[in-house]
Structure formats: structure tokens, C-alpha cells
Amino acid sequence: MNAQALHITVHEHGNAVFRYRMKTTGSSSERYGACEVCNQHASEVFHLTSAMLYDRKSAGGGFGWTPYHCLSLFGHRECLEARRIGQPVMTLDADTNDANFRAVINGRDVLIGRDCEGFKVYIADSYEALRPSLLDAYRFAQHAAHHPERRRPVTAFD
After folding, report:
1. How far is Cα 75 from Cα 57, in angstroms, rounded to an integer?
2. Residues 12 and 75 grouped into a single domain
3. Taking the model in full, what pTM does it have?
4. Domain count, the chain
5. By CB count within 10 A, which of 30, 129, 131, 153 is most buried?
């Protein structure tokens, strides 16, 4: 099952960040069995996988993704979407294992990177802000991309 992901969403739950990939299998329950959430037949079965962002302290530092304690379920799209935890923050365009979050907001390239200090926001390759959560960083990036004249200094926390 090497199908391209239909959509990749990033959710934040407490201090944890999760990436969810939803793929279609192209088959029904007759091949994959009943929906693992509602236990009903599905005419089109989807596959949901998740990964959690973690600090790789023992592997040379930096952040990466781990499937440890995460989901891998087959079933109806609606059932699987209901199993995602946390508040949805953003949708990713590229299906990569990179721990950085890339987006285009209002025609400007945005990169949100995670390090030991928090989430750093770069807009058009220029460092802009440090925020404690991914949701705060993404909201800052949206505001800064839409209203560059009203950006607050890098050192300002909301």
C-alpha cells in the first residue's frame, strides 16, 4: 500500500505534537476487514497513521518523528478522523519525515522549526519569532504573513 497520502494534518495536544496521514487503500472491507473503530463494513477503506514529535537527545539531538504510542488504523474516513487527538493546527503539503513545518501563507514561504527553546518562525528565510507552542507559532506566522506592517518585535511574547 504505497498510495499517496490524501492529507496530512498536524495536531497539538498539551505539549505533544502529532502528525496524522490519511491514505486510501483502494479496497473495501472485504479485503481489509471491518472498520476498526465502528466494526461496520466500509465500501472504501482508509488507513490512518500517526507519529509524535520528540526530542532525540540520545541520537545526537534535534527533533524527529516516532510512531511509538501512536495510531495505525483501517476504516471509514469519518471514523478515523474522529480518532485524531488534539487541536488541528495545520495541513502539510509535502509528505516528508522532516521535523520542520513548511507552509505557504499569503504567497510567502513559512518555516516553523522546533528546538529546545520552542517553535521558531521563519518567513521568507528571515527569523521572525520564538513561540512556546506550535499553535502560537502558526498563528503568529498567519498574522505576520497577512499584516507584515504590524509585526511585533522578535522578542515580544503575546
Report:
1. 35
2. yes
3. 0.83
4. 2
5. 129
